[in-house]
Structures are given as structure tokens and as C-alpha cells.
Amino acid sequence: WRRLPPAPPGLPLLGYLPLLGPLPHRKLQAMAAKHGPVMLLRLGRVPTVVASSAAAAQEVMKTHDLAFASRPRARMADRLVYGRDMAFAPYGEHWRQSRRVCVLHLLSYRRVRSFRHAREQEAAAMVGRVRRASPGGRGAVNVTALIISYTNGIISRAAFGDEGRFGVDGGEKLTKLFADFEELLGTVTFGDFVPWLAWVDALMGLDAKAARTSAQMDALLERVIADHRQRRRDSRREHDGHRDFVDVMLDVNDEADKNAAGGVMFDDVAIKAIVLDTFAAATDTTYTSLVWAMAELINHPREMRRVQDEIRAAVGDGDRVTEDHLPKLRYLKCVIKETLRLRTPLPLLLPRETMEDTQLLGYHVPARSRVIVNAWAIARDPATWDRAEEFVPERFAGDDLTTDYLLGQDFRFVPFGAGRRGCPGVGFAVPSMELALASLLYHFDWELPAGGPSKLEMDELNGLSVRLKATLLLVAKPWSP
Ligand code: HEM
Predict the structure, then answer these.
(1) How far does the centroid of ligand 1 lie from the alpha carbon of residue 281, in Å?
(2) Which partner from 93, 202, 279, 476 sits 20 to 30 angstroms from 295, CA to CA?
(3) What is the residue extent of each domain of the chain?
């Protein structure tokens, strides 16, 4: 006899799918309050287990990590990242090799540090754009657009090289292409849950849009890879220690070629898929978190003052924030953590799939179940957090900030997931966010536009990540030491 998790009944055929609403993390939180920290829902034809407590998350991502380490197939990922990427890949040899390259080569500490100059330039460019958009603090600035441009900038430079800077200056068409790509990748299709309803996706134009976007992305990446190959033939990169993701993937192939014992080679499709993957995983999450952080600070003037005082004291008379200042900005780190706690950009992380029959808090979980960890609900659980619903950055002040975000330590706070499938991009994300936020807060005092509401509406919008629904428009009053 095997005890299955409590299973609230859904509708015939579609199960719980249509009942999750526009913000599933909220609906699932309310359901967990009634049914407990482990639930079994049928979404279309897919049995889905939902984990909603720190203890359940720990079993998924640590105790039984291997059993929970696969991912379900996603039709959009098949179309957009060739079904050959890493983040959406089932557990297996392809995922293992891709992850290895990602962790050892693309996102190593040394590699992330090598992009420091690109981050600092992009942060300075963002500050310049604020000044131009709001001369002398007159007129509102579209902070959302600025932050998207900054994030696209640093990530496309890391992925495609300094010539591949595709932010606002690189053309609106590309910004739109990236936005469409991320939106599609974040779209849950009917076909994923109810195969015989896949025609609805076609009817809604999703398939056609995916085909169009994928063809444009593919052409762009083909060009980028061809340019890189050409440059390598010309040896123009010989003495250039600074290498982007495409270079690194081509280097890995060259090494494998030279190595008589062989090594793993990545064909062009795999290279395109992995580069696109990191791009997709990095941009939406990073920009969403930055916008949320600015929004929370606007609604919390005391915390805003405190973090600005800290940054301005650390930078002193310097004319800009650099990464050398970041280790001193302890309160800023708390602000970012508190933002990730309350505004977890991927509230349900990325879905997992069980590879074998396993257990979760004593319940039986069959092989090939979809598994969702409601990290957002866990981070607001009043049983484990004081003032769980409030923005209180100080709560993280006692943390040892040198071991920041050590995944798999505290399962009450898992915005990056943990275990084998945990986010390999934390080391990239953290300095990108800290530098951007510190730069915006050092150079300007921020206010809501006069004549509007005195508090910002914090409504959410679901996509690849859950973001602030409103466009963040703020007035930037220049500040100088
Ligand atoms: C605030 C920023 C970010 C957040 C909140 C975030 C969060 C996550 C989460 C929740 C997962 C799934 C974890 C799991 O299943 O346990 C994930 C996976 C992943 N992330 Fe991030 N991420 C961020 C930034 C980045 C960046 C900057 C990169 C790369 C430059 C990146 C690359 C990836 C990749 C490649 C995966 C897939 C890992 C796998 O399936 O093995 N992420 N991320």
C-alpha cells in the first residue's frame, strides 16, 4: 500500500490546469494552506506534485535530488532551443556534458570576473542614459526599459562578445526579438499537458510565432558563430584573454579535436542551444529582480535612505561605483536577498520530473511525475519567517556574506533552486545585480512622478519570470558628492 499525496479534484479532462489562474504561485500557496505541503494535482494528463514547505524542498533538491533531477519536455523549448539545450534537457549524458562545460568554462569564477569591464561599462552607460532621459531631474525615466537594456547588454557581451552588444543602442528590432523569445519560452502550451489539444496552440498563433522567432534567432546565431570562426582564422583573438561564450565553446571543441583520447565535441546546434539557454536563463531573471528591487525601495523610503547612505559612504568622492566597492555594500546585499525572497523571479523554479518512483515527506511519488517547488510560498511561510509578508532587508544582516547563496544550505530560501539542477549562474547574477543597483542608487535620488499615486502598485505579471506588471516610471534627481 502506497500513500499518495492529497489530491484536490479538478475538472474532467483538463484537471487543475484551467483553475490555476494567471498567477499559479498564489493559487498553489492557498491550496497548500488547505491540503498541506505536498499535493498531487492532475494538470491535463500530467500528474504534478507540488512541494510547498522548506522540508519538502529539501527532500526534492537534496535528500532525493537524483530521483528528482530530470525535467519534463517543453514544446516551446523544443522549438526555440532545438530540444538540445541544457536547462530544459532531461537528465542524461547530453545534460551532464553541457552542464560540465557551463560550470567549468562558461560560468566559472574566473570567467565571470573576466566580464567585469563589460559590466562596469554597461552600468556607466545606463547612468548616462538616465541623465539624458531626465535632464536635471525633470521628466520621468522608464526604469524598466533601462534595466532591460543593461541586462541584455551585459549578457549579450558575455555570450556573443563585445561586438554583440544588442541593447537599446544595438537596435530596437533585436530588443524585440529577445523579448519575443523570452515570452515564448515562458509560455506554457496546452500541448504540454493535453497532447490532443496541441491544435489550440496552433490556433492561437503560438506555433507560427515560435517558428518565426526561432528562425530569426537562428540566423543571428549563425552569423555570430561564423564571425567568431572567421576571426579565429585571422588569429585576431590570439592575445585576447577575454573570451565570450561562443569562443569558449569553440575552444572546447578545438581542445577535444587535439586530444588524442578524444573529448566531447559540441556541434553547431548544441553550441547555439547552450548559448541561447544561458541567455534566456540570465536576462529575464536578472532584469525582473532589479526592477522589483527598485520598486520595493521606492515604497520603503527608510530602507532606500539606508542603502544609499551605505553606497555613497563607500564610494566617497569617486565618480562612479566599481566592482571594488561591492564587498563593502553589505546592506545592498541584504536588499537584493530580501527582494529575491519576497519577489522570487521564478516563483515555481523550473519544473522537475522524477526519473524513478520515490518519496516526498512519506508520500509515494511515481516515476515521470512533474514536480513543482513553490519557492515563493516557502519564502513567505509564516511558520519559518517573522514578518513574512514585509520587506525587511535587515533580516539577512547576520548572514555570513562570504558564503552568500551557497545553494543547498537553507531550504527556506531557494530562489536559485539547489542540487544537481540548481542555478549555475548565481556567480554571474549577483555582481550584475549589485553593480547596476548600486550605480542607480549612487548617482540619483529616485521619486515617483508628481501628481500620481504616492505608493507604487506592486501587481505581478506572469511570464518566463514573474515581473512587476506596471512599467516602472520614476523621476531621477541627480546627486553628486
Ligand atoms: C536573479 C537571477 C537568477 C535566478 C533567480 C535564477 C534562478 C534559477 C532557477 C530557479 C533555476 C532552476 C533551478 C532548479 O531546478 O533547481 C535556474 C536554472 C538555471 N539557471 Fe538561473 N537564475 C538566475 C540567473 C542566471 C544567470 C545569470 C545564468 C547564466 C548566466 C543562469 C543560468 C541558468 C541555467 C543554465 C539553468 C539550468 C540548470 C540546469 O537545468 O541544470 N541563471 N536558475
Answers:
(1) 6
(2) 279
(3) 17-478
